[in-house]
Amino acid sequence: MDTTRLCSTARQTGFTIVELMVTIAIAGILLAIALPNLRSFILSNRLSTDVNGFVGLINYARSEAIVRNQDVVICPKSNGAIGCVADQFWGEYELQAFVDINGNGQRNAADILLKTVPATDAAGTQRRLTRSAGVGVIRFGAAGFSQTAHRFDIHAVGDAQFELTYGRSVCISRPGRARVTSNGGVCN
Prior knowledge:
CATH superfamily: minor pseudopilin epsh domain
Shape: elongated
Distance between the termini: 94 Å
Order of helices and strands: HHEEEEEEHEE
Number of strands: 8
Strand content: 15-25%
CATH architecture: 3-Layer(bab) Sandwich
Radius of gyration: 27 Å
Helix content: 25-40%
Number of helices: 3
Number of domains: 1
CATH topology: minor pseudopilin epsh fold
């Protein structure tokens, strides 16, 4: 049998180095296009989750104030503590909603805890939930009205472009309604 004939008619399979280099180059180009969009997508989803969670807590507290016919307060608190923290940066703390039995705006042993929400970003390095008018609490009266109007900004930290593009403001009106606007939007 002729062995040279068998070797020359055998089909060669596999990639050549040129085919492999072209494939890697195309994959690199696709990654370079997709990576910035992936970062924007992830950041947008995280901020949307933060906004939805915060608005959900506001609506829940307002609803409980009406149902219980008592004042309900939302405020930030440190881990393991029950009292409210006087800070403008609410995203670094757990948020708590409670029935304010004695009306002092601070949670104590006599008050009824309704709900606690984890911190948006405890380190404050990626996302921030900021109260625009200094420190204080959100208080809903028995009729569901807010004691004062409030504005909170939720945005990415350290990237002005992302803050403008994906940042949101949560506005709480005196009647107690929560509304979401783009970052820098007007709260009436």
